[in-house]
Amino acid sequence: MRFPHRRYHLLAVTGLVATLALTATACESDDRGTGDDTGAASSRTADRDGDGIPDVLADRLEEHGVDVGGWKNGGWKDWDRDKWLHEAKEFVNPVIEGLWDAERMRGAGDPGKTVAAQDASAERGVSDPVPAPVEARAEKTPYHEHAGPVGKIFFDSPEGAMVCSGTVVSDVNHPGESNLVWTAGHCVHAGGEGGWYRNIVFVPSYNDLSRSEEELAEGAPDAEIAPFGQWWADWAATSDEWIAGGSEEGGAGAPYDYAVLHVRPETGETSLEETVGAALDMDFSAPSASEAATMGAWGYPAAPPYNGLTMCRCIDRPGRLSLDPSLPTMYRIGCTMTGGSSGGGWFRMVGGEPRLVSNTSIGPADNTWLAGPQLGEAARALYDEMSTTYGDR
């Protein structure tokens, strides 16, 4: 199936050979390299109208017949395929204040629309045996103390409001001041048959105390629903392979199903990392499954028996999943998380420190395992481009 749906000690996990303690630490490096083409970067981010849409993108939108001025006033609801922005440089997501209120967030992501079947029998190539299911466990509350960098992603699609999961990651060019969020490609772009989703917002530590639907409906304070506020993606990047070959079942784009967002607060100026108090470092070494003794996946599963209101985790020893001999091998772990957990980070320990090594992408119809892409040099290049070009916006 597809799954769009202050420092703290965080993501502490037990149950394996030893305790896997994922403790977030801000990057201490003073290397603030900004790349060799700062003039080009400035031209790509210039915004003469102050509407949150870079000038170069506004011009491209007009070429596509999109009324930039009317976008915030409901023009984004037009999903005409001829105007559904598809190309990598056509992402647009201006802030629409108040759009994602508590009720709209709570109602996002009908699991019947966010989950599509992935036939596990279609596996070809070299795969390890199917792992035994690992029952997802609820993260400790309050989330902001135990797993602050993990959050929920909300976005609009032609089928309505949807949900995914994501993680605050460090920015090597802006240590301690990151505005980057790692997630799955299918949480931001529909793949070969569609384009960029709209109104993409990241909410770290969503529903901080894991309130029930009834409690939320009665009215929970904003400080509990979104303890760190709402963060709008002002730029997004995913792999060319996902844009060209991704599908509702993953398709040939599944091994490349990753994305990085650059976000800004709906109100205020402080960076995401400073606000949350932590960010996770990336691991682009693409270790083999045998090298990574343990991996842990975090996210907000939304399809039954879950409801998208509770942050969960699974820990397991990864194996290999090969969908086709011509495609890169994916990681696979046992896990019962369902739709909505997509994009949630996978972590492993490197030198005693946590590193984000993958993200949830696909799983079977019976919700017994999850698979995620290996993050190698192509993923690193995507991350570096986002950091260099948009990191200081």
TrEMBL record:
* Renumbered residue ranges of the record's region Disordered: 28-55, 109-130
Keyword entries, A-Z: Signal
Top-level lineage group: Bacteria
Locate the compositionally biased regions of type Basic and acidic residues. Answer: 45-55
As recorded in UniProt, coiled-coil segments are none
The keyword RNA-binding is annotated on this UniProt entry: no
Q: Which SUPFAM superfamilies match?
A: Trypsin-like serine proteases (SSF50494)
Fetch the InterPro entries from UniProt: Glutamyl_endopeptidase, Peptidase_S1_PA, Peptidase_S1_PA_chymotrypsin
User: What residue stretch is flagged as signal peptide?
Assistant: 1-26
Protein known as: Secreted protein
Q: Which organism is it from?
A: Streptomyces gottesmaniae
